[in-house]
């Protein structure tokens, strides 16, 4: 009896499978494209007039309701700089200060390298900017007496070259993977109270012209503007994956910013460098009032960039 029940069950299952395959064959004969790979819908970037992407924040931003308080009426039409009236310059200054602290690249993972306050810098760890042990190359300009950033990058397995011609030290190997150079960074090769060189010259001097600088950091007291200008002109900046700089505005400057500084900010973006993090220094000596607009501004701002030309490289 047991054998007969199993036999019957097998026969029924066979009949069911025969009917299923028959129906499937008929379906495929009538629809030959079913087995062909269907094209997948493409994913397109969402473009909006807002600086935000998510609909919730786009909605919040749609009125463009940034509040701008104009200068007193009797002072607006005075010509102050480069043919601009004080009213025109006031708007330019305001937007410059907003722009340099606006995030342009979404770095999902970053770490503080070095001190939590002055002396430390943010490092983006998202591929392709992640720091690869025993492969990474770091240039650090401006040490003073704070080695916390350099030491952090050494511990991460990077070859770190530290530069500062103002601390009275000669060239030496400070520790394994860390080399000190009595040399400054600028926009030319020469002397400005101490020896300075262009980034391209330094890379050639150290035999790094075929290597990528994973992180370039500089706090060089106003020399950053000429250094950046030359890096863009000779394209050595394209060898840099991440860059962090303390941008200075001289206290005796008549305007904040100058047209030259604004052009460099524009050139950086056009070269592929986007801001992923900015921070103010809040000590009293870092704050001043704009000579033209009486707006409180920060004379020193730390700005961190990633070079988006590397985003599409093979990981």
From TrEMBL:
Residues 103-277 form the Methyltransferase domain. Keywords: Membrane, Transmembrane, Transmembrane helix. It holds the Pfam family Methyltransf_22. It comes from the Eukaryota. The chain crosses the membrane at residues 7-28. InterPro entries: Methyltranfer_dom, METTL24. This is Methyltransferase-like protein 24. It comes from Lingula anatina.
